[in-house]
Amino acid sequence: MTKHHDNIFCEYTIKSWDDCRILFNSINNWVFRGQSNSSWSLQTSLERGATNTDWREIPKIERKIIDKFKRRAFHYMEKLPQKEDTLEWLSLIQHHGGPTRLLDFSYSYYVAMYFSIEQALQESAVFCLNKDLIYKKGLETEKCRGFDNDFDYGSREYCNHVLNEQTLSPLVMLIEPFNLHERLSRQQGLFAIPFEGRQAFEYNLSLTVNKFQKQLPTSKEIVEYNNLLDLLNQECVLLKVKIPKIYHNEIRKDLKLMNITSETLFPGIDGFTKSLYNEIT
Questions:
Q1: CA–CA separation, 72 vs 47, rounded Å?
Q2: pTM, rounded to two decimals
Q3: What's the rounded Cα separation, in Å, for the pair 131 and 75?
């Protein structure tokens, strides 16, 4: 890690469960997302669902999804968000398994680790986003673009402005909805939201830190992180931590001792039913 802006995306393969915890405890104020296959990139459910779609059509598709949900949701639930509160509507769609541009993250790396290894059949990963750097660089970029102060940058009001515009210049914002439904609360969750709906999440993320980067940066492989922690916190916006399969059982047992299970992370019978997988392992 030598040249400025070479270190936006990084990767590290853990050497042990202890090694993993030391790393996570050393990166301050980051947020985490577990994925069961380390070869997958960071994609929103809307992005994955639109693989065979003309990307220019995604904003229209997104608007149609939101409008359809708004018109039908009263059949299924009593308390609904304000009509113009797009973040809350998307949070509900996400909660119930629909396609959105929201990407789930957690303040807890233990929760992310659970989702990483829960049903993984191969090397998994925890994706780490540098929360402070995303906010700092995002605000700098918006000011360069003539950011007006009608809303505070990073606020829910500003987020709703972004979501309603749909195709602003590429950027990523981290945000919590006002209403933390039980699952989001249990999982210490928040959302990462791309501003430009016609571009991939990782492209939005890259331009948050370096607005002159026209292509996705090459991910830099880290062999030892002990002397690089300052640089990680100052420059790296995305760190993919790979979790080899040989460590999964040990980690799974520790998470169970910490009471991080399906039953605690998912409310009601859904969590209990998912926890029955523990009878197999």
A1: 23
A2: 0.88
A3: 37
